[in-house]
Amino acid sequence: MDLLEFEKNAHQVVRWMIDYRATIDERPVKSLVAPGKIMSQLPSAAPENTEDFSAIIDDVNRIIMPGVTHWQHPMFYAYFPAHASPPSVLAEMMTATMGLQCMLWETSPAATELEQRVMEWLREALGIPRDFTGVIQDTASMSTLCALLVARERASDFRTSREGVHSGPALGVYCSAEAHSSVDKAVRVIGVGSNQLRKIDVDKHFAMRPDLLERAIEKDKEQGVRPMAVVATIGTTGCAAVDSLAEMGRICRRHGLWLHVDAAYAGAALVLPEMRWMTEGLELADSFVMNCHKWFMVNFDCSALFVKDVKSLEKTFEIYPEYLVTGREGQVRDFRNFGVQLGRRFRALKLWAVFRSYGLRGIRAMIKGHIDLAREFCEQIEELPDFEVMAPCHLSLVVFRYRPKGINDEKELDRLNKELLEDLNSSGKIYLTHTKLNGRYAIRLCVGQIGSTRDHVRQAVKIIMQQCGSAAPLATAQG
Ligand SMILES: *Cc1c(COP(=O)(O)O)cnc(C)c1O
Residue 146: what pLDDT? Predict the structure, then answer.
């Protein structure tokens, strides 16, 4: 593809991008394709000869699109949002065009320095204390993995990375029963072992119980397990519960543990000063992760990890083969020493583009809008006699279930709600996901598309009620 063809095809791709976004709400939000259907349309071997780019675009439309679930669809309420705002997408195109590897300062000074700067912007925007230093990782899973590795090294005075995990006592990691599965994965990967991950029970608001945490730490100490780190969650995946950092922090200080904060989704809401109650006590933490690729307008991937003890972070990951020595070590920042991967994408550019295109004011307005819409949805559900809200709603997530009058058998309610969710999702009109709270099946609705409006939320209430054939007063949903 020469430059002229590149230009012609690029215009075609941009046209495709605009058409896609312009027609997204006419598409079934969740793909209903049967397993294997897409693969059966793809040749079993790579082509020997050249093909036109227009043929590729045609096949995207013909073969790929039926197997796409539209994450930017206004009726996508599943999981958590994964924004791909226009400025972010444009910056991503520029990043891809340059094709940089941002492992060392030398390999693109601008990439390193822009990343340092936008991480400072983000730190200030979220009210994270100034003694934290930010680095962009691919995902919250990786950020948590990195944080726990540093915690492991610090707990063993950096002996584990030399001698292996069997060189010392078993290490204990603590999180709530509602913590994300990435914590389970991290303890497996770093050699702590899932048997040494203590899932602490939660209180009635689904937050980790500090009394039980402290008891678990003390019990481990008595039994020769060395407590290493606590992972507190700000905004759990199930129901957006908030662990108390002040309580966790005090316990971690008392026992010499690393405190990692997983705010992958809810961290974005810290742009609003009125939401900073969630991170009261953050100054006691050692590391903090939030995903810009969830609720912060940046397209995947862009996870921001903030660490207080940068020296330990670098000591955990630094390694100097001759071919990576530049002679500038110590004078400039080499982000390859801030994580597992060597090659790194130039992700700071899209975060920069988002900050500048929306401004903090625009970002705050979006987040506040979503929180308000979620509250409205929650209030409407609460008013319906056949539904109940299952967890406090203080962010953009509402967890609820269908509970028709006269049905009190919990198993039957689980079955009804599972069926309801399947029917809703196969309608193509809306996409929601579920969780279990206190063992009971519950439906999650997360408001948070960049273009979400009150109409979309009312439509959601209406679709849900219609699906139930609910006898509830329709006036509520129509407002
Ligand atoms: C989404 C989420 C994660 C995982 O995020 P990835 O970036 O996909 O790894 C971890 N923790 C919480 C609380 C989340 O909501």
Answer: 98
Confidence grade of residue 264 (pLDDT, cut at 50, 70, 90): very high
Q: 140 CB under 6 A from ligand 1?
A: yes
* pLDDT score, position 469: 81
The model scores a pTM over 0.70:
yes
Does the pLDDT of residue 116 top 90, yes or no?
A: yes
Q: pLDDT digit string (tens) for 130-172?
A: 999 999 999 999 999 999 999 999 999 999 999 999 999 999 9
**153: Cβ below 6 Å to ligand 1?**
no
**Does any ligand 1 atom lie closer than 6 A to the CB of residue 138?**
no
Nearest CA to ligand 1 atom 12: 264
Instruction: Inform me whether the pLDDT recorded for 475 exceeds 70.
Output: no
Report the mean per-residue pLDDT for the chain. 96
Three-class SS of the chain = CCHHHHHHHHHHHHHHHHHHHHHHHHCCCCCCCCCCCCHHHCCCCCCCCCCCHHHHHHHHHHHHHHHCCCCCCCCECCCCCCCCCHHHHHHHHHHHHHCCCCCCCCCCHHHHHHHHHHHHHHHHHHCCCCCCEEEEECCHHHHHHHHHHHHHHHHCCCCHHHHCHHHCCCEEEEEECCCCHHHHHHHHHCCCCHHHEEEECECCCCCECHHHHHHHHHHHHHCCCEEEEEEEEECCCCCCCECCHHHHHHHHHHHCCEEEEECCCHHHHHHCHHHHHHHCCHHHCCEEEEEHHHHCCCCCCCEEEEECCHHHHHHHHCCCCHHHCCCCECCECCHHHHCCCCCCCCCHHHHHHHHHHHHHHHHHHHHHHHHHHHHHHHHHHHHCCCEEECCCCCCCEEEEEECCCCCCCHHHHHHHHHHHHHHHHHCCCCECEEEEECCEEEEEEECCCCCCCHHHHHHHHHHHHHHHCCCCCHHHHHC
* 184 CB near ligand 1 (under 6 Å): no
265 Cα: distance to centroid of ligand 1 (angstroms): 7
Distance from Cα 73 to the centre of ligand 1, integer Å: 20
% residues pLDDT > 70 (the chain): 98
